[in-house]
Amino acid sequence: MEKKMIDQSCADFTAALASKQPVPGGGGAAALTAALGTALCSMVGNFTIGKKKYAGVQDDIAFLLRQCGDLQQRMLALVDADAQAFAPLAAGYAIPKGDPSREAVLEAAALNACQAPMEMVRCCAQSVELLETMLQKGSRMLVSDVGCGALLCGAAMESAALNVYVNTASLSDRDAAVRMEETVDTLLREYLPRAEKIAQCVAGRIRK
């Protein structure tokens, strides 16, 4: 069985990303970045749970930790899902231009390639919501990690959006393309400012 990308060491994944091979690429990097940002939310929760100072929010923190754990697993799975979607797209482009099946194959492959980054954008939005709550209820000793997590998830969201747009641009079904782009645009407009607000709030707390 072929080794999953997420099972590689950090050094091996980075080397693969830098190499002259198509995957992993920007989509996989975005998904991993989102997982790391969400993991920082989990770290803050794990340093908060069980502390007497935060006894009043223990149930909330436990819920956040479960949500973060689920999101991290989804995001890591998207690293490989994004890579797997590239193979049919590459195969489609390899079909001779005179082949009557080429257009339909490319259309289906491009549509499929939109799915992983679309899910990344949605996951990042959910992570921002969790980070907002963690900022309010998590350990104040780790507030900078909440800010870092928000910035990572914001960057991952923008990166994933680019991977949606690069595929919708080639779709013949413009109605489907516009629907996906509008969904992404709406999420970006709402959640990027919220991620930035978290980071600004953190900076305001730690800078004197």
UniProtKB/TrEMBL annotation:
SUPFAM superfamilies, alphabetized: Methenyltetrahydrofolate cyclohydrolase-like
Database matches in Pfam families: FTCD_C (PF04961)
Domain Cyclodeaminase/cyclohydrolase: 9-185
InterPro entries membership: Cyclodeamin/CycHdrlase, Formintransfe-cycloase-like_sf
Superkingdom as given in the UniProt entry: Bacteria
Protein name per Swiss-Prot or TrEMBL: Cyclodeaminase/cyclohydrolase family protein
Source organism of this protein record: Yanshouia hominis
